[in-house]
Amino acid sequence: MLSDMDIAQSIKLLPIWDVAKGLGITDMDLILPNGNYKAKLSVRLLEQLKDRQTGRLILVTAITPTRFGEGKTTVSIGLSMAINRLGKKSIVVLRQPSLGPVFGIKGGAAGGGYSQVLPMEDINLHFTGDIHAVSSAHNLLSAMLDNSLHFGNPLGIDEREIFFPRTIDMNDRVLRSMVVGLGGRSNGPAREDSCVITAASEVMAILGLATNRNDLKQRLARILVALNFDDKPITAQDLGATGAMAALLKDAIKPNLVQTTENTPALIHTGPFANIAHGTASIIATNAALRLCDWTVIEAGFGSDLGAEKFVDLVAPLAGFRIDGCVLVATLRALKHQGGAPDARKGMLRHLWLGLENLRRHIENCRTLGLAPVVAINRFEGDAQDELKLVIKSCEELGARAVVCTPHSEGGKGCEELAQAVLAEAAGKPGANKPIYDWESRVEDKIEAVARKIYGAAQVVYTPRAERDLKRIYNLGYDRLPICIAKTPLSLSDDPECLGACTGFKITISAIHIRAGAGYLVPVAGEMELLPGLGKKPNALKIDIADDGRIQGLS
């Protein structure tokens, strides 16, 4: 089979104006082209869409993945293309890939095979510059913070209580912890600092959760940067950074319109990771899609314990979304890995049997969240038919419909049965997503609800630092915010080595960060790095550009 890159470069793309016309957008002033095959939706169009009736929403989640991913984006794209094949209008809504994973171990995030969003080279690299705008706005606030310290510290900022890091859209472990301001007084006061990947930036989360430009500015203003010597909050508004940050995000707030390998529409906007942020595309893009088509397909990052839980408990209540259909992606590779196979590609039947417990738990998680999942078994080349049948039978015994799909090799055609199953499951049923905690409850109760009901933990314990963080949260009045737990995606627990359906374990909360602008708290479960590092053989080693300007090695 051809490589992802070869397939992407073989597809005849429609001019982006024609893609827009397919959505009923006939006034070309309502889209802002970025070349021939990318465009931003104008603010004027977004305003016009507000009064339209909304379509229906399908959430795509997954079982616990391997480090390489299980094709959830590929399935999401294939499902949307299949719905269009069935005569319904559908848009897939995805996050923008981060350069960190693109050059790291996981690779690009534009789908794969015959189920991709295009132009994939642009999407995986700089795209329309949104992530750069987020990085710039974030680092402007960091610069203004240190500038205030340098010029006499008029706000009385306590340098021991600075919470806002710097950011970079790259896997670069040496920047996780650093000292800035070295080299003398002219370089500012020396202090400890840190850096997070842009996907973990609070500014990225704010852009994804804002409902309009005014809401964006209000959220930026509320960012908690530090405390003063009286333990009072210092915000972005106090530093006078809000207006300039919003100006840098002027175009980044507009969703990006592209197309799939079958020339169907896709919206790509914002890129928060699900393990360290909320993990879905922007509310603005999702709202636009819901008003432009019959069925919106949105992907939630990682497994149901992360992206799906956060979508139901955090994003959907904030935006008023109702989830009409749910797809749970599984692969034989991931199931065997969860069953303890040393090499998941060569795992035995016994590993698959053991791994099915992980699938069972994710089905239960979806139901706990009020969703009725259809299991999409994403078939890889070499998957055994008898093993696929075993997974289908196991799902049926659990009362869940399971369908084998082949989006990578067959595009939308390979997801038609899945699309029919999802539409049938959603037919005549109103969305019934069900948050598992009340935002008004105690912080500890919110954490306990997710840990016990979704992760399966027996107990939640807090480190001394986390207990200090809790005290500060209550003292500052942030305890009514929802939570967005940062946790490994490789296990239902906070230990990446605990496979399958862990039971009887403790979740250790090591810290709780306040994200006042985004509007949530981030309890950190176990040890989490907010800035990844490159692997021994990163994908960057494979990527090149040919003499004719064509990108090579992206996947």
From TrEMBL:
It comes from the Bacteria. It catalyses: (6S)-5,6,7,8-tetrahydrofolate + formate + ATP = (6R)-10-formyltetrahydrofolate + ADP + phosphate. GO terms for molecular function: ATP binding; formate-tetrahydrofolate ligase activity. ATP binds at residues 66-73. Pathway: One-carbon metabolism; tetrahydrofolate interconversion. One of its GO terms (biological process) is tetrahydrofolate interconversion. PROSITE patterns: FTHFS_1. Its EC number is 6.3.4.3. The keyword Ligase applies. Pfam families: FTHFS. Keywords: ATP-binding, Ligase, Nucleotide-binding, One-carbon metabolism. Belongs to the formate--tetrahydrofolate ligase family. This is Formate--tetrahydrofolate ligase. It comes from candidate division WOR-3 bacterium.
